[in-house]
Specification:
Blueprint: E1 6-11, E2 14-19, H1 29-44, E3 50-55, E4 60-62, H2 67-71, E5 98-102, E6 105-107, H3 109-115, E7 119-123, E8 127-129, H4 140-149, H5 152-161, E9 165-166, H6 167-172, E10 178-180, H7 185-197, H8 201-214, H9 219-227, H10 232-238, H11 241-251
Parallel strand pairs: 2-3, 3-5, 4-6, 5-7, 6-8, 7-10
Antiparallel strand pairs: 1-2, 8-9
Helix pairs in contact: 3-4, 4-5, 8-10
Length: about 260
């Protein structure tokens, strides 16, 4: 077992987070707490604009909860740290893009981790499942999220039976954005991250807050919140230097220079 289960790498405005816990990149309580701290730092660092989450090796992205750690005493209802399991799915105010680069088996809590990202890229050999049903437990976060992301009946089949989806089928149902050869996955993830990092961070923040807060709202209620200045990120955007820079750049027929201010 590695002493450093989470590896991070900064490249300009991009943070790469690699889950590295041989043999399968499973997450125990201690690792989850570390991940929460990593993503909190990412959220709060004004110089970081995009994160990539991936797994070490070529076989596993993440199988979720570490059952061996559970057998040794980790409580399933223990302290996962800020952000909940894996540091992402309950992290408040994370208004920056996150890309999941799924490099292999992605199941259980690992699939829930991927679902917490905004964009999911996958290697050709990646596979996806929610096998919790076979161990008599519930995939709680996936039960909330998955039926909203893919067709209801497909989501319920996965939850009820634990069946596996290969990357091609996962793409067909809209679970993932793109499939790449394994050797190209990280290069493509970095290319996507670079594209996002070059964009307007205040606009991304507004998009993420609106999408998150409006998920269970009626359309007109959400629109009323925007027009009544009740979304903090939207108000910050409309009063920002970047808003003026965008208009100037358009008028001057040049690329804008975004500062996040």
């Amino acid at each position: 077992m590695t002493d450093n289960p989470i590896r991070t790498k900064r490249d300009g405005h991009i943070l790469e987070v690699t889950l590295d816990r041989p043999k399968a990149n499973a997450i125990d309580l201690a690792t989850s707490r570390i991940m929460g701290d990593v993503f909190t730092d990412f959220r709060d660092d004004p110089d970081l604009r995009v994160a990539i989450i991936t797994g070490a090796g070529e076989k596993f992205f993440c199988p979720g909860w570490d059952l061996k750690a559970a057998a040794d005493g980790d409580a399933v209802d223990g302290d996962y740290g800020v952000g909940g399991f894996g540091g992402l799915q309950e992290l408040r105010g994370l208004n920056k893009p996150v890309i999941a680069a799924v490099n292999g088996i992605c199941c259980g809590g690992g699939l829930e981790l991927a679902l917490s990202a905004d964009i999911i890229l996958a290697a050709e050999h990646a596979s996806f499942a929610l096998p919790e049903i076979r161990s008599g437990t519930v995939a709680d976060a996936a039960s909330i999220k998955l039926p909203k992301r893919i067709p209801y009946h497909i989501a319920m089949e996965m939850l009820f039976t634990g069946r596996w989806l290969e990357a091609e089928e996962a793409s067909r149902w809209g679970l993932i954005n793109h499939i790449y050869p394994a050797a190209d996955l990280m290069a493509e993830a970095r290319k996507m991250a670079a594209l996002l990092a070059s964009g307007p961070p205040l606009v991304y923040a507004a998009i993420k807050e609106i999408v998150r807060e409006a998920e269970d709202m009626k359309f007109q209620d959400a629109m009323n919140r925007i027009t009544k200045s009740q979304f903090e990120t939207v108000e910050r955007l409309y009063r920002s230097q970047d808003q003026k820079e965008g208009a100037r750049a358009f008028a001057e027929k040049r690329d804008p220079v975004w500062t996040g201010k």
